[in-house]
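> example.struct
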């Protein structure tokens, strides 16, 4: 599939068919993700594909509990929302990142702590690298005929999910991607025109 066709055709999928996603398809998606650029070519990402229904339900329970606690009202069992919809997909791909520190970061950590903090926490090249990999995984999924929803909503329960998935410091859970064959979709949300978001000088 042409890359422009994939970028234009992809949209977030929030309703999935039950058909399982073959493991070879996941490996192809991850291969595409591994081709993404990463700062210092650190390749500081790995993926955990959760297919096990029981584990998906446990993850949903954890997310629902924290959402209920913060929103002050209980989420009824089986209710799907934008925090927990990964549960209704055949699988949820968890993007796990390692922090990235370049030589420049290391020097700044010792010599200029203010600049170091900006680079580490605002620029965050490690996080940008993980995002690039996630985007390639999602486009590959689309080209293979699968729908995805890139989700950070579930990370309202980040420490609890990390513990349930045995993700240990310094690794971090950074995104959950619901993957499966899509049910019929609503129209793709509109986009800004290129002229609106581009400047030349
Ligand atoms: C970093 C990131 C986090 C997102 N988190 C969620 C989420 O938690 N739940 C959800 O339903 N959609 C989530 N989305 C999907 C966005 O809502 C969606 O991409 C946006 O509305 C544009 O729609 P489209 O993907 O269909 O083009 C997320 C997207 C990104 C890039």
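> example.seq
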């Amino acid at each position: 599939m042409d890359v422009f066709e994939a970028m234009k055709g992809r949209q977030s999928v929030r309703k999935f068919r039950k058909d399982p996603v073959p493991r070879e398809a996941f490996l192809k998606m991850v291969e595409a993700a591994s081709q993404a650029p990463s700062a210092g070519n650190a390749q500081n990402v790995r993926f955990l594909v959760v297919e096990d229904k029981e584990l998906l339900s446990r993850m949903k329970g954890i997310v629902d509990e924290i959402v209920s606690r913060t929103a002050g009202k209980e989420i009824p069992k089986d209710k799907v929302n934008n925090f927990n919809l990964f549960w209704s997909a055949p699988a949820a791909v968890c993007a796990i990142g390692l922090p990235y520190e370049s030589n420049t970061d290391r020097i700044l950590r010792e010599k200029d702590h203010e600049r170091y903090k900006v680079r580490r926490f605002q620029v965050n090249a490690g996080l940008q690298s993980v995002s690039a990999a996630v985007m390639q995984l999602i486009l590959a999924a689309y080209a293979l005929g699968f729908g995805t929803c890139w989700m950070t909503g579930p990370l309202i329960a980040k420490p609890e999910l990390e513990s349930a998935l045995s993700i240990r410091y310094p690794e971090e859970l950074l995104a959950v991607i619901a993957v499966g064959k899509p049910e019929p979709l609503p129209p793709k949300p509109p986009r800004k025109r290129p002229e609106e978001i581009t400047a030349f000088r």
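> remarks
Helices lie at 3-9, 23-34, 53-71, 103-111, 113-123, 125-143, 158-164.
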